[in-house]
Amino acid sequence: MTAQAVQQEDLAVVIGLEVHVQLETDTKIFCGCSTDVADAKPNSHTCPVCLGLPGALPVLNEAAVESAVEVGKAIDADVPEETTFHRKNYFYPDLPKGFQITQYDAPICQDGELAVEVGGQRRSVGIRRAHLEEDPGSLQHAGGSIDSADYTLIDYNRAGVPLMEIVTEPDFRDADEVRAFLAKLEEVLEYLGVFDSGRDGSLRIDANLSVIDAGEIGDDGEISEEALDAANRTEVKNISSHKGAQKALAYEATRQKNAVQRGREVEQETRHWDESRGITVSMRSKEAEKDYRYFREADLPPLQVSDWKERLEIPELPDARRERFREEYGLSAEAASKLTSTRQVADFYEDVASEYDPDLAATWVADNLLGELNYRDKAITDVADRLDEFTRLVELVASGEITTKNAEETVLREMLDESEDPETIIEREGLGKADEGEVEGAVTDAIEENPDAVEDYHAGEDGALNFLVGQVMAKTGGSADPGSVNGLLRDRLDE
Ligand code: ADP
Ligand code: MG
Ligand code: ZN
Are 345 and 369 in contact (CB under 8 A)? Predict the structure, then answer.
């Protein structure tokens, strides 16, 4: 962009992402070490392969490749006839071999897309490529920051954990679109069962951002290759959350716009997102591809994967499931969206809906269960082994054994707080529905004790019956069914 005074509105932001996600496999990508490293002692999950000892040879983990092909199917990508691995060379102590095994010119997925919804608009984000690679180890700088640390500790437990790097086209125009994309990507990956967003470090984002002349954007929203290449962009590293991405990109957009407005050139460089200070800082001028001296990984033969795409099945994806829930169960858009928020929720809803009424199931799963879980900062996965107890509670309501009010306000809450089953709570709290004799007795008492209300009822006053129903409910401790109390009272008063 030429160095002359420019207005803010003349500038447009362009963003492209490189998202690293950890694939959920039991073992690492090139050795048999366990990936379950969360609470492990440093360097306890290592072997000659992931420590890069001379002579150790990598063996490709089939489960990681399967996950990658499943991701390819989900994002509608091309999976090539043959995929190969390369060595990306750079020196840094988190990389014991001095190179990272990754993919280069024959990535396992190419030319995919993911549809996202932003501000009610549906947009497709292009996925340029998605490839497999190994994670490096982790460095711990004693004293905090890399410049002031006295020494650095290294833990190779993460070294060799399988990652997929998903590279988008520069299709984002603001940070909100990026957030919507990240949420959608995680949702799809979790539906596939290849990713766990709750795992520490499972998502890391490098975000590329440039500022261009708004006139370069065509009517169709497209930007020419030339304009994209001509723009100086920064790559912001070290972003590890959706919120972090939004903040880092908002900061970077403002920084670059200000520079352009003052007639300064934006430097093409790598910047570091400093989460605690909320700013991006210059790290180094960006590496060029030649710095990495890519060459074929001779220890891993080319892999024929073209028929894997047909062989591997993927589950119904969130958008399709949302659509089907609306049609099949007549749910509102909002309910369908809540009930498909994770595959576990959707599966559970369908279990309950097939047994009882879809509307009753929707109320119980979306409003009651998810609402109470959310209030306790929990997810359905936290009660995964107790879902049958919850189904029994819905059954108790459906069959009229307890009232909806008691089920919602007492039984469900105690189930979650005390980890008890519904029958135990109902027994202890005496919440079973009152027997007929008890209700009839309460009806008789209510009529005898409230002659004024009876008189009002006969005079045609609307509120009188409700008042009497309330009296009966109070006498039975809320265990009677308000509908049948209403009927009983009418019968007796109209005799
Ligand atoms: P490199 O080889 O330097 O890593 P790539 O062409 O592979 O660059 O692109 C890396 C990322 O940069 C991609 O996510 C891409 O969408 C993004 N990108 C490309 N051009 C631009 C641009 N002008 N502004 C912002 N991001 C861009
Ligand atoms: Mg790159
Ligand atoms: Zn190992």
Answer: no
Residue 479 has pLDDT above 80, yes or no: no
Q: Which of 119, 258, 232, 237 is nearest to 179 (CA)?
A: 119
Average the pLDDT over 406-420 and give the result.
92
| Residue 123 φ/ψ, nearest 5 degrees | -135, 150
| DSSP letters spanning 57-82 | -----HHHHHHHHHHHHHTT-B--SE
Q: Give the N- to C-terminal CA distance of the chain in Å, as an integer.
A: 90
Q: Which atom of ligand 1 is nearest to the CA of 288?
A: 3
Pairing outcome for strands 269-274 and 234-239? parallel
Ligand having the closest approach to the CA of 167: 1
Q: Is 15's C-beta closer than 6 angstroms to any atom of ligand 1?
A: yes
What's the whole-number mean pLDDT along residues 328-332? 95
Ligand 3 mean position, distance from CA 162 (Å): 12
Q: Are 271 and 287 in contact (CB under 8 A)?
A: no
CB 94 within 8 Å of CB 139: yes
Name the residue of 208, 223, 225 to mutate for ligand 1: max ligand atoms within 8 A of Cβ: 208
How many angstroms separate the most distant Cα atoms in the chain? 99
pLDDT for res 244:
95
* Structure tokens, 423: 């029958």
Q: What is the pLDDT of residues 227-255, one digit of tens each?
A: 999 999 999 998 999 999 999 999 999 99
Q: Is 17 in the pocket of ligand 1 (CB under 6 A)?
A: yes
Q: What is the tens place of the pLDDT at every residue in 267-294? A: 999 999 999 999 999 987 666 778 899 9
Tokens representing 143 are 């004293």
Ligand 1 contact, 228 CB (< 6 A): yes
Is pTM beyond 0.70? Reply is yes
Q: List the domains of the chain with CATH numbers.
A: 3-311 (no CATH), 318-429 (no CATH), 436-493 (1.10.10.410)
* Whether residue 372 has its Cβ less than 6 Å from ligand 1: no
